[in-house]
Amino acid sequence: MNILVINGHPDKESFCTAITEQYLSSLDTAKHTVKSIHLYKMSFDPVLRLGYRERMAVDRSIEYSQELLLWADHLVFIYPIWWSSMPSLMKGWIDRVFTPGIAYSSNNKGSFLLNFLTGRQFKKYLKGKTAEIITTSMAPNWWYKIFSGFLSVPDSYGVAVLKNAVLNHCGIKTKKVMVLGEMGRETNTLEIREKFLGKVSQRAFS
């Protein structure tokens, strides 16, 4: 199994970096080939400046990311939920990496309804790949567990956009989600964080 771990936090000193390191150290490298991307280390323009009208200039960081995306069998996304979504750096990375021709295709012919019914509009190029999502959130865990996916509450979007609108759109099946809540609050103690890291170790591609 080829496993790609993506740390989407722009701050090297973040707890997401600790989660990433814990996940990487817990994988059985005798069974899996593992590679990682830390977005805070990368130098690239996260703005899709021309939209889909025209391709941007060649960027080796983006090309390398696309090579790893196609290489991986399993993707692990680790990031904080900010303003009900992922950090802008990670969103920009997805905009630049999950492009038509790499992650999916759309012929844009005919009506949306006809294309939807016949399956001609979208082609999912990343079928067969799997993913997992590990996030930190200021909202408590019970808030996420009760409402995520059922009601329009802020932190449900932090996972749903990536899981449903990006990964599923390209054919990637999300196998599990882990959320550590109450980040930045006094209730999020060192003991709770260490316990969460223990769970990350136990569930690292399990």
Helix percent reads 25-40%
In terms of structural class, how would the helical and strand content be classed?
alpha/beta
Helix and strand pattern:
EHEHEHEHEEHHEH
Give me the number of helical elements. Answer: 7
Sheet with the most strands, sense and barrel status: 5 strands, parallel
CA radius of gyration is 18 Å
Low-confidence stretches: 149-155
Q: Roughly what fraction of the amino acids lie in strands?
A: 15-25%
Question: In which order are the strands of the major sheet placed?
Answer: 2-1-3-6-7
What overall form do the CA principal axes indicate? globular
Span between N and C termini? 12 Å
Record field, number of beta strands: 7
Mean pLDDT: 86
Describe, in plain words, how this protein is organized in 3D:
By secondary structure, the protein is α/β, with parallel strands linked by helices. 38% of the residues lie in helices and 19% in strands. The chain is built from 7 helices and 7 strands, in the order βαβαβαβαββααβα. It has helices at 15-26, 60-71, 88-97, 112-118, 141-147, 154-170, 190-203, and strands spanning 2-7, 33-38, 74-80, 104-106, 122-124, 130-136, 173-180. Helix 1 links the parallel strand 1 and strand 2. The longest helix has 17 residues, at 154-170. The chain starts with a strand and ends with a helix. The model is unreliable at 149-155 (pLDDT under 50).
